[in-house]
Amino acid sequence: xxxxxxxxxxxxxxxxxxxxxxxxxxxxxxxxxxxxxxxxxxxxxxxxxxxxxxxxxxxxxxxxxxxxxxxxxxxxxxxxxxxxxxxxxxxxxxxxxxxxxxxxxxxxxxxxxxxxxxxxxxxxxxxxxxxxxxxxxxxxxxxxxxxxxxxxxxxxxxxxxxxxxxxxxxxxxxxxxxxxxxxxxxxxxxxxxxxxxxxxxxxxxxxxxxxxxxxxxxxxxxxxxxxxxxxxxxxxxxxxxxxxxxxxxxxxxxxxxxxxxxxxxxxxxxxxxxxxxxxxxxxxxxxxxxxxxxxxxxxxxxxxxxxxxxxxxxxxxxxxxxxxxxxxxxxxxxxxxxxxxxxxxxxxxxxxxxxxxxxxxxxxxxxxxxxxxxxxxxxxxxxxxxxxxxxxxxxxxxxxxxxxxxxxxxxxxxxxxxxxxxxxxxxxxxxxxxxxxxxxxxxxxxxxxxxxxxxxxxxxxxxxxxxxxxxxxxxxxxxxxxxxxx
Length: 486
Fold this sequence. Notes:
With 486 residues, this protein is of the alpha/beta class. It folds into two domains: 3-181 and 298-446, Zn peptidases (Aminopeptidase); 184-294, Alpha-Beta Plaits (2-Layer Sandwich), CATH 3.30.70.360. It is built from 14 helices and 13 strands. Helix 4 (109-128) links the parallel strand 3 and strand 4. The longest helix has 23 residues, at 424-446. It is globular and about 80 Å long. The model has no long low-confidence stretch (mean pLDDT 95).
């Protein structure tokens, strides 16, 4: 079986794939609002011969595109939401907004979705050459990764249960196979309602929602001393009640994020935060209403799939950049407000030989564009952040890679990332990712023992069972919108 034939097909369709990435880069739609991006993908995929279903799990901007029949069933995941305040001119070396205060793809999800789509194209081409019933590929459009956790809602509704395996990728400043795990996470918004009154003339008639919010924050800050070391709690005030200090604030709102290793532990901590909110309302004679925003689970690592992805990453190699790419990256590195040297940021390696290799290949962390593959190291290290890929990994064996699409040590969620996301650097990175995912999927279709091993490993790792962080009655919502309190 000539796997390279299908990986080369990705180069043949590079114009379509990269054009989709660039258009979505231009749309720059926020979480759960990716209407143009979703429509673009669905149109392209229908024309390519995929059977497209939209919406999925009640999420208007989620879709699934299927091709083939029979087993195995391999899922390829995509994301396409942007971030606020990061509008930026493409391939520019200085801060230059296109839209004042507009959105931008600071996490590279425009490339993530397009690269995954490229892999789906090639796997479909492979299945066309196989007998009917040889297997199925499903390309999943997963909106709202930055705020919405669509994969967790899809997990609650059973979307992942029929997959044999799932694979995905993410743009990065390095090329490597992801390993280790992360925290689970729950986001909840609390809205307080008080009574407006003249703050000087009749303060006794007022009931301050802002007082309640501040007391809640103080209570949670005292809670920090009495929660597990690995847990985290963050908050952002989304409504301060107005701009007039001589008015007792009748409304106020805060968004909380509670993290812990396992969902069950995050839920216990969340209950304590809820009680603090209720106590703050009681102390101030106000009302409080909470709204679930989203939640996601920790990752379940799968060594079998990680090793498979690494074999394909070695075969394909890191993106091949040219002098123009390196010049752009070097100028972007010069634009960083905080310079970095040493081990490239984001890597937590224990093996000394791998450390030596990476330090040499990155020129002690000073190389402006990392054009090498980091050797694979299985890890059980827990990162403090969270991703809704974790919810997929609790229901089917899942693994992902990172591929260089950004200048070295590029700050996460930065204008520099946006600049690279519509450039030759980004295009080369996403096409490389597509080839790796395609190769890994074809290997699984050709050798079912890989899937058997991955699923046997998964059965042991996820034996305690999936605890969904999303309540049965919850609906995807956009955070920051004001909550009505009766």
